[in-house]
Amino acid sequence: MPPKRKSTESATASKKQKSNAVPDELLSIPRNPRWSRVSGSANADMQYKYQTKNTEDAYSWVGICPHRLQPANAADEEAEECSDTCPCLKTPEEFPDHPWLVTKACFGKSVCYQIMYTLRDPDGFGVSGTYEHESFALLELLQNTLLDFHEAKGNWKEQWVICQSFFLWTKRLPFEDLMLFNDGEQLEEVAKMLRTMFLTMLATLEQEGLLGPDSEVKNLATIMALYFALGRPGQGGMDPLAYDDTDLGVQVLAYAKKYKIILHSPTDIQDLIEELEPEAENTTLPAPDENNNDPWKWSAELSEHKRRYAPDGGNIGGDQFDFTTWTSADRKAGSYDGKDPLTRTMITKIKEGLVMQPAYVVAQSV
Questions:
Q1: What confidence tens digit (pLDDT) does each residue in 28-55 have?
Q2: Residues annotated as region Disordered (predicted)?
Q3: Rounded-to-integer distance, Cα 225 and Cα 71, Å
Q4: List of residues 6+ apart from 129 with CB closer than 8 A
Q5: What gap in Å lies between CA 47 and CA 218, rounded to an integer?
Q6: pTM: predicted TM-score of the whole model, two decimal places
Q7: Please, which residues bridge with residue 101 across strands?
Q8: Which of 111, 211, 315, 325 is paired with 12 by a 20 to 30 Å CA distance?
């Protein structure tokens, strides 16, 4: 477990970046109270919010290579690299026949979470880590995803960004480490909440009149297909997140059947559709009701999770496992050479609000 800190307020830095200042407009954005006073995670979050202030541009549609949407063990390794001629971040007008789309903000959110992971990675800091640290760090990121979704209530487009980007950033992280997690009950609960999150998303789109084959949500059938197969053996799902006491696949397929949406995935899911179709056709979904804006009991589930795992008015998620939030003495104590892996200059830049990120994260984002 990481050392405890006195502060639980908020703070971006770059080993490679030489910009002298952070835009005043970025610094004026209110910071989320879940971040510590000095925090690389806070800076990454603030950068994302700054980059997506122009919501018309942020929520516009761009192409994406299908391998980016496939789970790591389902993608063709030879096709993992994008090229100058690939459709990623290109407009649909440039690739009119390309079927795979996401919003531009989806890429930004994915990069944000990849950065947050690197700030928790013991290898990247030359710190003696443990499976416990790495597992809790990954769980912390998943909990932050739940909080991001909850805090975006009332903005379905941002909630959809969170649901889309989940598949991009989780693909690149070592979620097999969660198999060694020593709190299976908490992991199972988080996995179930990720499923409730998406069902709540579908209910929200239903209330907005956005479920259907001609929805303005242009990748609706694709993202529904990805959640439909989430965690299922043989479908490239993440085994640590395969816990479920309800069948997400059946519920998603029931929504698809109700609104004549043909699920559309980079991987072959037809056999699974045929397997679950009879049950989906006999599934009753909660009726869309403007007086019941939480038919899947998302808020109650999240509140109960906080009560169990963040007692005394605390919160889940945050940046407790982000090494930039640790004191210099604590980083030294855990480092292989007894030195702080962060220089004074790096720490100063983090305090100023710059984003600390390795070059490979930038390369993966385009």
A1: 888 999 999 999 999 999 999 999 999 9
A2: 1-40
A3: 12
A4: 121, 122, 123, 334
A5: 26
A6: 0.89
A7: 63
A8: 315
